[in-house]
Each structure stands twice: as structure tokens, then as C-alpha cells.
Design a protein that fits this description.
Layout: E1 2-7, H1 13-22, E2 28-32, H2 44-60, E3 63-68, H3 71-84, E4 89-90, H4 96-103, E5 109-114, H5 116-120, H6 122-131, E6 137-141, H7 143-150, H8 156-166, E7 175-180, H9 189-192, E8 201-204, H10 206-219, E9 230-234, E10 237-238, H11 242-257
Parallel strand pairs: 1-2, 1-3, 2-9, 3-4, 5-6, 5-7, 7-8
Antiparallel strand pairs: 9-10
InterPro entries: Asp/Glu/hydantoin_racemase, Asp/Glu_race, Asp/Glu_racemase_AS_1, Glu_race
Keywords: Cell shape, Cell wall biogenesis/degradation, Isomerase, Peptidoglycan synthesis
Pfam families: Asp_Glu_race (PF01177)
């Protein structure tokens, strides 16, 4: 059986990329809800409906696990999804805990970058409260980055002015760790590096999610000997046109080169 990956758009490929490194012999379904992207600035209940429609479709394809490769979707629906389905469902959340651990005792702060909806959710605030004993975590929504990614525009010429404007009220030298709390954001790591000090770490939760996926499959004796084949879907429609598939493969190459 295959492993399902779900995101509002192409951001989840950054998580799937990590899974392929750890589990190259598994076969995958990648579902991008391209009809409704972006999620981060939509009403919560509307997004929940889209998430459950996507999960129902992926479940109908026969999967042994589902990765919600979207911080926004995880924050508002992962617990309810786990109650509905009998296969493991993994989410992703901003890597606040390791970021705080890295910065404690350094006089540096943590900056969490995510979508508005993720940062509004109680799940995120509970996470921060549980680890931020010294009040060093700050957050900033960057919904515009999702739109850049969905347009496959990763150019410094486009993205750098946007980021400089969003960061204009911050002293970027004070941050020791930058948390990418949206799976679309790792595509822009080369641009982020131009703005932050060389000693600032830029991290996400993608590797931790992939590592947890591998652990769960091993514990359930469900590892496969497949070929690493990926079937792509856009809001329930299988992607078969070569132009789109070529764009997806370009994303994997980009991530390989980072």
C-alpha cells in the first residue's frame, strides 16, 4: 500500500522530499488542493471542509499512512482526522521546541514564520507556552510566500523585496534560529540566508515528520519494497500533463541542491 501526502499546494513536496530520503522504497500519493490554495488566509471552517474532502479521497485510494504535510491543516484538523480513520495520520508543526533549545543561554531570539491561520490557532500558542520559558519566541505571518511558491516564482528579484518589506520593523540580527512554520517556505531558504546573519539557523519540521513516519511504519512492520513511485493529484484529479510533472521534478531538484 502507498503513503498519502496532503498539502494545500506544492509546499508538502518539501516534506515528501525528506520522506523519500529516509524511505526511498515506498510508493506515494501526493495530493495538492490546488483549487483552494492558499489556506492560510481563509476561514477556519472552510479550510476544515477542504481538508476532510482531501482526506476522504486519499483514503479511498488505499493508503497505510497519511502525512498532513501542511502546518495550517495540521493545526486545525489533525486530531479530528485521527478519530475518523484507522490508519496512522501524521501532522507537522513549527519546530519551536528545538529552536528554543538552540537559543537558550545565547541572548538570541527565535523567529517563527508561518501563515496567519497557523499562528492564530490555539495549538500553536499551546506549543509556544509549553517551551518558551524565557519569552524568546516571536512570530510573523508571511502569507505572500505561499503565493510566490504556487506561481513557481522563487527568484531573488521577486521574493527579496517582499521579505525586506515584511521584516522592515524587525532587527534581524537578534534572531539565532528562524523556524519555517509553513511547508512552502523551505523553497526560499537561499533568499532567507541573504537576510539573516550567517550564524542564524533556519529550520523546519520536515525531517522530524519524515523520521516519525519511518518509525511508525517500522513499528507496524509495514515497510515496503517499492520503487519510490509518486502519483500526483490536484484536488482529486490525477496529474498527467507533462508540463506540470516537469515542474514538480524541478522542485525536487531544487531541494536536492540546498
Amino acid at each position: 500500500m502507498r503513503i498519502g501526502f496532503f498539502d494545500s499546494g506544492i509546499g508538502g513536496i518539501t516534506v515528501l522530499h525528506q520522506a523519500l530520503r529516509l524511505l526511498p522504497n515506498e510508493d506515494y500519493i501526493f495530493y495538492a488542493d490546488s483549487l483552494h490554495v492558499p489556506y492560510g488566509d481563509k476561514p477556519k471552517e472552510e479550510v476544515r471542509q477542504y481538508i476532510f474532502e482531501a482526506a476522504d479521497f486519499i483514503a479511498s485510494q488505499g493508503v497505510k499512512a497519511l502525512v498532513i504535510a501542511c502546518n495550517t491543516a495540521t493545526s486545525i484538523a489533525v486530531q479530528d482526522l485521527r478519530q475518523k480513520y484507522d490508519f496512522p495520520i501524521l501532522g507537522i508543526e513549527p519546530a519551536v521546541k528545538p529552536a528554543v533549545q538552540q537559543c537558550e543561554g545565547t541572548r538570541k531570539k527565535v523567529l517563527v514564520l508561518a501563515t496567519s491561520l497557523t499562528l492564530k490557532e490555539e495549538k500553536y500558542h499551546n506549543l509556544v507556552r509549553s517551551v518558551d520559558r524565557h519569552d524568546i519566541v516571536e512570530s510573523l505571518p508571511l502569507n505572500g510566500l505561499v503565493r510566490f511558491a504556487e506561481q513557481f516564482d522563487f527568484s531573488e528579484e521577486s521574493v527579496l523585496p517582499y521579505l525586506r518589506d515584511q521584516f522592515s520593523h524587525l532587527d534581524l540580527r537578534q534572531y539565532g534560529t528562524v523556524v519555517l512554520g509553513c511547508t512552502h517556505f523551505p523553497y526560499f531558504i537561499p533568499v532567507f540566508k541573504k537576510l539573516f546573519n550567517d550564524d542564524a539557523e533556519i529550520i523546519s519540521g520536515s525531517f522530524g515528520t519524515a523520521k516519525n513516519l519511518k518509525h511508525i511504519l517500522e513499528s507496524r512492520n509495514q515497510l515496503s519494497d517499492g520503487t519510490g513511485e509518486i502519483s500526483f493529484y490536484h484536488s482529486g484529479r490525477k496529474v498527467e500533463d507533462q508540463a506540470t510533472l516537469t515542474q514538480y521534478h524541478r522542485l525536487f531538484r531544487m531541494l536536492d541542491e540546498m
